[in-house]
Amino acid sequence: MDKTRPPESFGAFKPVNHVVIAFPSEEALEAALQDLRREGVEAEQVARYRPEEMMAQADRELHEASPVAAVGQELNLVRAHRELAQAGHHFLVVPAKGSEDAGRVARIAREHGATRAQRYGRMIIEELIEVGEGLPQVAESPARGLDAQTRSGEERTPSPSSVPRR
What we know:
The chain has 166 residues and is an alpha+beta fold. Helix content is 32%, strand content 16%. The relative contact order is 0.20.
């Protein structure tokens, strides 16, 4: 993937058939990248983002994205990626055309302490690393954002009393 021209949908980052992984440190990212290479993922297929690169990309997208991009969760994920980058996370964007590839990438991401891993499909974005603490998931929307119990959003788990009831 060429990160100088990231894949977008209506101005929001949407790398279809890729997994976006957030790592809490550059060391964790490097270790995962070595394992991915051992699994046959070629270096030129992977895009790496330092925290400041992801923040700059997110800022640009939040400013320039079409209002149509707010219909799905893409802009909420851009906001979540920005918050993770602001907290110092490093990112990998890895190709994963099928479920088997995505499962292999997710396993390696988990083994190296990834905070988040999302597989971007044409119609859905799938969380590959379980997050939260077993609270019931609340409805997500463009206005409400991502479910607050996940480690995206505000990067903290709310108390059960702060989770909206359905």
